[in-house]
Write a structure and sequence with these properties.
The protein is of the alpha+beta class. The chain has ten helices and seven strands. The chain has three domains: 89 residues, no CATH class; 66 residues, Helix Hairpins (Orthogonal Bundle); 152 residues, 2-Layer Sandwich (Heat Shock Protein 90).
Length: 349
């Protein structure tokens, strides 16, 4: 009995063509019972159907399988690989291809399990690190504040150095707090308390809280003309406030002096609202955009250090939005500006 499980494309084509040719031969014999004509009809139909089926298999099915193999190896094919795809791969049966894909899937499953274990270790490490750093940093900050507030006889240089030390301690405090926020977001220790609220009002509050910083740089915080001020969303209000303050703060820090920060609200469909915060600053180069939400990733080290920040703000924003089951994105063009946008769920009845 023929084993049909491991047939090559040529064998499968021949078997299928033979099965199709038999009833055609019987039909020809019934119409004109001449053995020569029946044999010619059978052979011609067999050859034609064999070539057609083989062409279809190689042209369409194995072409798709070739793409699967290229995806598996994730490389642009070399000459050796092209030879493999052209001559060796078409000789494989579908079952052999399936076995290759299953082996690849098992390998990837192992890699994913290892990545998850490493991610768990990293989360625990960050959580423990932020916890252990809090006590000595807060103690150091308390000592500095006490000296600066009580000792009026400090020399000018000593006072200046103490102020610099205090500013750097404040940066450490912000960094530890941000690390703590990310750790709690990743571990799910910060549950979401969702409610309906008007997103326009929340953006307005973010603008007001950063008014002095915007005023120092001459930046106007505006809303795009024609937006619907009454759109309500269903989300954790305080978490989204944190996202908006972070994005508006970035628009002020990296926007053009005497420029504008503009907020937009779009009703995408019956279920989602898109919120965008844009600036008209120097923008972000295209090669940096895919990594902009990574922890500590900086597009311009000198500028970032001068302006300040822990480098975790956008990572926190991403975690908050993804915790809501939504997405956050960035669009930017050098010398034109940058726009951050995120989606939220519409009001629940």
């Amino acid at each position: 009995m023929i084993n049909t499980k491991n047939l090559s494309p040529k064998q499968l084509s021949l078997l299928t063509a033979s099965i199709l040719s038999v009833p055609v031969g019987f039909g020809a014999m019934l119409l004109r019972p001449e053995w020569e004509l029946v044999l010619i009809t059978f052979v011609v139909f067999l050859a034609g159907s064999y070539l057609l089926i083989l062409f279809t298999l190689q042209r369409f099915i194995y072409r798709k399988i070739k793409l699967i193999y290229k995806f598996i190896y994730q490389t642009k094919a070399s000459k050796r690989e092209e030879t493999y795809y052209k001559y060796i791969l078409p000789q494989k049966s579908i079952d052999e291809v399936r076995e290759d894909v299953e082996k690849w899937a098992e390998q990837r499953e192992g890699e994913i399990a290892l990545l998850k274990a490493n991610e768990k270790y990293r989360r625990e490490f960050l959580q423990n690190l932020s916890h252990e750093l809090k006590t000595p940093i807060f103690a150091l900050q308390g000592y500095l504040h006490t000296i600066l507030d009580t000792d009026e006889g400090l020399e000018e240089m000593t006072h200046r150095f103490l102020n610099k030390a205090n500013r750097n301690v404040e940066r450490l405090v912000n960094l530890v707090n941000d690390l703590d926020d990310i750790s709690r977001l990743e571990s799910g220790e910060q549950p979401l308390y969702k409610q309906n609220f008007v997103v326009y009002d929340l953006i307005k509050e973010a603008y007001e809280s950063l008014f002095l910083k915007a005023h120092e740089r001459g930046i106007q915080c505006l809303f795009k003309k024609g937006i619907n001020e009454n759109v309500q969303v269903f989300a954790d209000k305080e978490k989204i406030r944190q996202v908006l303050i972070n994005l508006v703060d970035n628009a002020i820090k990296y926007g053009r002096t005497n420029g504008k920060a503009i907020a937009s609200i779009y009703t995408m469909d019956t279920e989602h609202v898109l919120v965008e915060i844009g600036d008209d600053g120097s923008g972000i180069a295209e090669e940096h955009l895919p990594r902009i939400f990574e922890r500590f990733y900086r597009t311009d080290f000198a500028r970032s250090r001068k302006i300040g920040g822990s480098g975790l703000g956008l990572a926190i924003c991403k975690h908050i939005i993804e915790a809501h089951g939504q997405t956050i994105h960035v669009r930017s063009t050098p010398d034109i500006g940058t726009t951050f946008g995120f989606t939220l769920e519409r009001k629940k009845d």
